[in-house]
Each structure stands twice: as C-alpha cells, then as structure tokens.
Amino acid sequence: MKKLLLTIGLLAGVLSSAQAWKGAGDQKAQAGINVWGFGTGPTASYDYGLSNLISVGGGANVYFNEDEDNPFVFGRIGFHLQEALALPSEIDIYPGLNVGVAGRNFGLGVYLGARYFFTENWGAFIEAGNNGSFGVSYSF
After folding, report:
1. Which of 2, 25, 36, 49 is deepest in the core (most CB within 10 A)?
2. How many domains does the chain have?
3. Is 97 buried (19+), middle (13-18) or exposed (0-12) by CB count in 10 A?
4. What is the CATH number of the domain that holds 23?
C-alpha cells in the first residue's frame, strides 16, 4: 500500500509540474501528421516565446495528394491565450498565422491550436485551419 501511495504521489508531482506555455524564452518543438487540407503528410514546427502572449517560429509540412507532392516552408506567429482564458498550466490554446512558400506558390494560412502537456517536457498538440494536424510536442 505504501508503494502504491508513493507511486501515485510521484506521478501527481510529475504531472502537476507540466506547463504548456511559459511565456518569454519558452521553446516548443512539434512533430506530427497533416490529416486534411492540401493533402496528408508529415509536419514539424518550432515556437519561441517573445512574451506571455506572442511566439514566433517556423516549420515545414509536406503534402502528398493525388495530383502532386508539395512542401510548405513557413514562418509563423502565435498568440497564446493561456493567461487570458485562465487555463490550467498544462493547457495552451493559441490562434496564429503562417506565411511561407508552398511548392512554387506563396502560402498564407491561419490556424487554431491547442497543446496539453503530460509531463514537464512531453505533450500533444492539435491544430486546425487551412490544414489540420496533430502529434507530439516537446518543451525545451
């Protein structure tokens, strides 16, 4: 019984230290899969916190579809609503904008994303907008 209580206590301590958005200087990397939009394929992105509200970063998607395969390399800006919505520390909701090059064309997109962190470093994300993706998040 003592071991069970100790295990539950340690697990609760680890989970309670998870923080989805720390603000200025925070760094998040994400990897996942695009499931709708211009096609399906892998996605990866990085965000750097400028303040409690704003992050900047970049990323790349590869879209595979029936007609052609297109890479999308982009810069992005996100607006983190964790503090404004008084969300628990494990959850971050963020709308944003990305601008880049999609194949041979200019690409512009908007998204609404959410992250949930299970531990201090590892979590999951989902983003929906011009395309949709989900996957894992890592906090540096």
Report:
1. 49
2. 1
3. middle
4. 2.40.160.20
